[in-house]
Request: fold
Amino acid sequence: MSPADNTQQLRGEALRARAMIANAVCAIAASEVHGGMLDRAIANLRVIYTIVEEINAHITAPNELTVSAARELGELIDDLQGRIAAIEKLIKGFHATSEGTPRK
Reply:
């Protein structure tokens, strides 16, 4: 394995770890919404957005990752974006409910 290949592999592993952290933070944010701690949930969403942007930057940059790592990370990002959308929907629903007009 060449030094460049090794670097790509290590970078991919580090970014996968970041994606897993983002998944954990998604669970925390969802829990915070359910607990009525919207400010904390929104702050955690910002952390998740930052991680997603960082990973996307590496996916799109040439020679940053192996093809398989880029593909896997792309799938992880897709999953994260789905979780983000679900949390955003929870927040909107919480706001609507607290205003007396439940929203779906």
